[in-house]
Design goal:
By secondary structure, this protein is α+β, with helices and mostly antiparallel strands. The chain folds into two domains: 169 residues, no CATH class; 186 residues, no CATH class. It is built from 13 helices and eleven strands. The strands form two sheets. It has a six-stranded mixed beta barrel with strand order 3-4-9-6-8-7. α1 packs antiparallel against α9, α1 runs antiparallel to α12 and α11 runs antiparallel to α12.
Length: 391
C-alpha cells in the first residue's frame, strides 16, 4: 500500500512539474513578446499622433458626398491650434480591422499575390512619418483625380517587378487597374507578429469608392493631447453636428488596445505559473522528504558501515532531480505545442525561443535543486545510533 502511494506521489509531482514548465514557457514567450512590441520600430512614427474615430453615415449618402465631407473635415481640423498635419484612412495600422484583402498582380500577368490595404486621404503617409523609397505618396490631386493611383510596399514591388522600377507601372488590385505612384518601406501596417501580411497597398479614398461609414482621422500634434482633443471635437461639430466622434486617443493607446490580448495572456500565465511553480516546489520537497524519512534506518546503517555523508547527499539529490528532470522533459514537449497555440500573439520571436526556454530551465534547475537539497542534507546528517534505535 505504501509503495503504491509513493508511486502515485511521484507521478503527481512529475505532472505538476510538467504543467509548471508549460505555464512558465507560455508566460515567458508572451512577456518577451510584449516587451519587444513596446520597443520595436514599427516603421512609422507613433509619437504625437492622435486618432479620431468618426462616422459619416448620418451626414453623407453618396460616395461623392462622403469624400467632400471628409475633405471639409480635414481642412477644418488642419486649422486647429496644435495640429501639425492631418489625414484620414479607413483603418489604423497595425490593426487589420477596417483593412481590405484582395489580389494584386502586374498588368498583363496571370500570377497574383494576396495583399492587405486601406483607403487613405491626402498626405496620409506623410502624417504617419513614412517616406517613399521612390516616387511619391498619395496627394490631394490623387484623391481628386479620376485616374487611379496606388502606393505599394517594397515587398509587393520586388515580388511583382523583381529587379525593375515599379513606379509608373500598372498594377491590378482585384479587377481595377492602378498606376503605381510610389513605393514605401515594409512596415507593420497590417499587424504585428505572425498575422502581419508583408504585401500592403495604399489606395486614395476615391479609388476605394467606399460608402459613408467609419473613418479614422490621423492628426500629428504638438502640446497637450487632452486640450487638442477638446478643440478637435468642437471643430468637427462646427463642420457638421451629424458626424459623431466615438473616440479620440493617442496612437500609443491604440497600440496598447491592439496588444491587449498579448498583455492579458502574459499577465494571466504569469500569475498561474508563479502559483504552479510554488506548488511544484513544495510537492517535490515533500516527496523527497517523505522518501528520505522512510529510509532513515537505511541511511544510518550505511553511514555506520563507512558511507560518507557526501555520498548519501548525492544519492538523494540524484533521485529527486530525476523526478524533476522527468517532469521538465515532458513539460518541454508539451510547451512546443502550447507555443504554436500562442504563435498569433508573438512578435519578434518564435514559439521555440531559445532565451525563454533557457530561462525556464535555469529557474527550474535552481528551484528543483533547492527543494531536493534540504531533505538530502538532512539524510546526510543522519545519526547512525539514533536511526538504529528508532526501530
Amino acid at each position: 500500500m505504501a509503495q503504491g502511494r509513493s508511486r502515485l506521489a511521484n507521478v503527481l509531482v512529475v505532472l505538476q512539474l510538467a504543467l509548471c514548465v508549460v505555464l512558465l514557457t507560455g508566460a515567458g514567450l508572451a512577456s518577451r513578446s510584449v516587451h519587444l512590441i513596446g520597443t520595436a520600430d514599427l516603421g512609422f512614427r507613433k509619437d504625437h499622433l492622435l486618432i479620431a474615430r468618426v462616422s459619416t453615415s448620418g451626414a453623407a449618402v453618396t460616395e461623392q458626398q462622403n469624400l467632400a465631407l471628409l475633405e471639409h473635415l480635414r481642412e477644418r481640423l488642419a486649422a486647429v491650434p496644435g495640429v501639425l498635419s492631418i489625414s484620414y484612412a479607413s483603418a489604423v495600422p497595425p490593426s487589420p480591422w477596417g483593412q481590405w484583402t484582395d489580389s494584386v498582380r502586374a498588368a498583363g500577368s496571370t500570377h497574383p499575390i494576396m495583399a492587405r490595404g486601406l483607403d487613405a486621404g491626402p498626405d496620409y503617409l506623410a502624417v504617419l512619418g513614412v517616406r517613399p523609397l521612390v516616387g511619391s505618396g498619395i496627394s490631394k490631386d490623387d484623391v481628386a483625380s479620376a485616374r487611379k493611383y496606388a502606393v505599394i510596399t517594397r515587398h509587393v514591388a520586388e515580388t511583382l517587378w523583381a529587379g525593375q522600377s515599379a513606379v509608373g507601372r500598372m498594377a491590378v488590385v482585384g479587377h481595377e487597374p492602378f498606376m503605381v505612384a510610389g513605393v514605401v518601406p515594409d512596415a507593420a501596417f497590417s499587424g504585428i507578429g505572425a498575422e502581419a501580411q508583408p504585401n500592403f497597398v495604399f489606395l486614395p479614398e476615391r479609388a476605394g469608392a467606399d460608402r459613408p461609414g467609419m473613418r479614422f482621422f490621423h492628426l500629428r500634434y504638438s502640446g497637450d493631447p487632452r486640450t487638442t482633443e477638446l478643440v478637435i471635437r468642437a471643430a468637427i461639430r462646427q463642420v457638421d453636428a451629424r458626424v459623431p466622434v466615438s473616440q479620440i486617443e493617442t496612437m500609443e493607446a491604440e497600440l496598447e488596445d491592439y496588444t491587449a490580448p498579448a498583455i492579458l495572456i502574459a499577465g494571466s500565465l504569469g500569475c498561474f505559473s508563479i502559483g504552479s511553480l510554488l506548488i511544484a516546489a513544495i510537492g517535490l520537497y515533500a516527496v523527497v522528504a517523505f522518501h528520505t524519512a522512510r529510509r532513515t534506518r537505511d541511511f544510518g546503517i550505511r553511514i555506520a558501515l563507512g558511507a560518507s555523508p557526501q555520498r548519501i547527499l548525492g544519492q538523494v539529490l540524484r533521485e529527486g532531480l530525476l523526478l524533476a528532470t522527468s517532469g521538465t522533459v515532458i513539460g518541454l514537449v508539451l510547451s512546443r505545442a502550447a507555443g504554436r497555440a500562442l504563435h498569433s500573439v508573438l512578435y519578434g520571436l518564435s514559439p521555440t525561443d531559445g532565451v525563454t526556454y533557457a530561462s525556464v530551465l535555469a529557474l527550474l534547475a535552481v528551484i528543483s535543486l533547492t527543494a531536493c537539497y534540504v531533505p538530502a542534507r538532512g539524510a546526510a546528517r543522519t545519526d547512525p545510533m539514533h536511526a538504529l534505535r528508532e526501530d
